[in-house]
Amino acid sequence: METRLLYNSLTPDILNELGAILGSRGLCTDQNDLTPHLSDWRRLYKGASLAMLRPATTAELSAAVKCLSGAGVPMVPQGGNTSMVAGAMPDESGQQVIISLSRMNRIREIDTVDMTVTAEAGVILQNLQKVASDAGCFFPLSLASEGSATIGGLLSTNAGGNNTVRYGNARELMLGVEVVLPDGNVINGLRRLRKDNTGYALRHLFVGSEGTLGIITAATLRLFPAARSNALAFCAVADEDAALNLFRRFRSHDETAIRSFEYMSGQGLALVLKHIENVAQPLSAAPDHAVLIELAASRPEADLSGLMERVLEEALTAGELEDAVIAQTEGHRAALWKLREEHPEAQQRAGVSVRNDVSVPVAKVPELLRRASQAFRQLVPGSRPAPFGHIGDGNIHMNLVQPEDMSGEAFLAKSADIMNCVHDIVRDLDGSFAAEHGIGRLKVNTLEAWREGPELDTMRKIKVALDPHWLMNPGKVLRP
Ligand SMILES: Cc1cc2nc3c(=O)[nH]c(=O)nc-3n(C[C@H](O)[C@H](O)[C@H](O)COP(=O)(O)OP(=O)(O)OC[C@H]3O[C@@H](n4cnc5c(N)ncnc54)[C@H](O)[C@@H]3O)c2cc1C
How many A from CA of 325 to the centre of ligand 1? Predict the structure, then answer.
């Protein structure tokens, strides 16, 4: 199949046609308004674009995509633009048109018998959590960017987050999806069925495809009963093995009670305490290794405080636990969560950091933490390994913050060596270089290096079948 890679730019005629389809609120060409949409959250790149479309309905978006695809103009879907891999911003050519889903932010339906909610792609995660909770239910997707990240972006990246250990990734929470294809046609797959084996499961093709196969406009998602009993503890553990052992202890007592199990290094916690306002050291001494454990159950009689105390007592006796604090009020719970949630922001403020998003089999997490931290210190003396993440999923953000006495430029010059170093260790431990943030623009080369042969070939064939002219989010995930 022929692949056309010469793109066309927007012309006044195309802009007029788009204006007629979308109305004045749906078409933005003012460069001041466009500026926040042209760079990524980590400020690694600065792109350019002549226009951003803001359709209000699926029909408007479908007509606009038909117009752009007919004219050979490339498109970049954008939700909350919180991508950690520069997935949602246009490149520097100025040819790519941003498609923002921000006006498609309605909850179409909530059904507490089916335990489903159908939400448009631009609904912000925090708003969906609130809608679910107001209906007496619980929507489990939860991550530090939930005040900005949208349902479309979360599904397109198959986001993970804090509760994946119990409820799975975004994919596991989705039953049906509505998508505008690269040619403008619409797949209406908003079925809310638990069982639906009608041919290829196309809905799963769009989850995790990062806007390269089509634009998600709405999804039907699973809800769960609200928790009526919970308990949260912030603990200092003896070392990396003790962190994993504590997870195993809770799992063997009651696997279904664990909602979150998060690891933080002492260095990462110190950065949060230094750079974030309104936080305080929760324990009597600064820990070298900390974990945050949240237990939750919908059974009101589940004695989760009792379970928490019993398991922590056991770990203390075994010499794995050094100190712990159990949240006493909702405010206390939020304050302890804040220490975990502010890790990305604290590292952003601490100077230049090399970040990654790796996963290994759960059993190998302690080895990953030890080997990578040691290798980092040898590679860049004085640098600050600040790993944190979802230990119960084997997913650690094995981040490294620049030494205080080194310039950001000098540190950045070593970033390729640092990434290679962590990737070598992760490969050796049978892991993945992209656990939850995806590929975006940042990791296209790495995907090619890790997934050569028939696997990468099949991905390209799927891309070309749906988007023969590579108009949908070009430069992300794959290149021709
Ligand atoms: C502080 C912070 C913490 C984070 N923590 C986590 C975490 O714990 N777990 C995790 O998985 N991620 C995390 N992330 C990454 C990010 O929040 C997620 O990737 C999120 O899913 C992106 O949602 P978004 O709406 O901002 O999407 P965007 O950043 O706008 O887009 C992400 C990708 O999806 C595509 N896209 C967006 N909307 C659509 C659509 N409607 N249809 C098709 N494609 C679309 C874009 O083109 C892009 O490729 C974090 C980010 C930040 C800044």
Answer: 32
Whether 457 and 420 have beta carbons less than 8 Å apart is answered as no
Residue 148 Cα: closest atom of ligand 1: 26
Residue 295, classified by CB atoms within 10 Å of its CB into exposed (0-12), middle (13-18) or buried (19+), is buried
Which atom of ligand 1 lies at the shortest distance from residue 125's CA?
25
Examine the pLDDT at 3 and tell me if it is beyond 70: no
- State the average pLDDT for the chain: 96
pLDDT for position 397: 95
Ligand 1 probe mutation, 39, 84, 342, 399, most atoms within 8 A of CB: 84
The strand pairing partners of 234, in sequence order, are 292, 325
pLDDT of 4 > 50? The answer is no
Ligand 1 pocket, CB under 6 A: 41, 76-84, 87-88, 101, 121, 143-145, 148-150, 152-154, 156-157, 159-161, 210-211, 215-216, 344, 436-437, 440, 473, 476
Cα–Cα dist 326/332, whole Å: 9
